[in-house]
Amino acid sequence: MTLKNTADRWGAISQLLHWAAVLLIAAIAIIGLTMVDMNNGPSKIKIYALHKSLGLTLLSLVALRLLWRFYAGAPRPVAGTPHWQERIASLTHWALYALMFALPVSGWVFNSSSGYPLQYFGLFNLPKIAQRSEELAQLSRALHEYGFWLLLALVLAHAGAAFYHHLFQNDDTLRRMLPGRRRTADAPSPASLPETPDAN
């Protein structure tokens, strides 16, 4: 497998960035959905801090992934894919990129406008990107929450389409984002081979 993308499949670096983003989104979502119901205390503060740090990591990862995609390009559509499916897939991909940027940024704005400090895994403080404002805090929080549900819906739709192509269309849509070699054409069975006359 090559590091760069080819015309037929995603390269190793694109695959690594893709699946790392999937794991990060899953972790951020699970933490985000559970932390709001926790009782106030040191444990809740730590879980919130982890949620924020993972969100900032996702922001950096998506920026890196976009830069790599512009450099390495993208595979051509799988042969036989209808044009309307290509358009929907492209729009979904760019919507996912936009939301993966917007959610960490809206969380950062909410954190700043609420007057909370922001540390990255306790290593260093990040600057405020907004002045303290109750109105802005409410707006950014709403965008963060509703954006999460939209991101979740798009992720599920994206995954569902990939599995549909894999299970029912039997094409390489999912395979080319997985490690390993491309699927090769099935070898013909002996029964399907033409008979040849005896040499005698």
From TrEMBL:
The keyword Transmembrane applies. The chain crosses the membrane at residues 16-36, 48-68, 88-110, 146-167. It is a multi-pass membrane protein. It is found in: Cell membrane. Its cofactor is heme b. Keywords: Cell membrane, Electron transport, Heme, Iron, Membrane, Metal-binding, Transmembrane, Transmembrane helix, Transport. It comes from the Bacteria. It holds the Pfam family Ni_hydr_CYTB. InterPro entries: Cyt_b561_bac/Ni-Hgenase, Cytochrome_b561_oxidase, Di-haem_cyt_TM. Residues 9-180 form the Cytochrome b561 bacterial/Ni-hydrogenase domain. The keyword Heme applies. Belongs to the cytochrome b561 family. This is Cytochrome b. It comes from Lysobacter firmicutimachus. The lineage of its organism: Bacteria, Pseudomonadati, Pseudomonadota, Gammaproteobacteria, Lysobacterales.
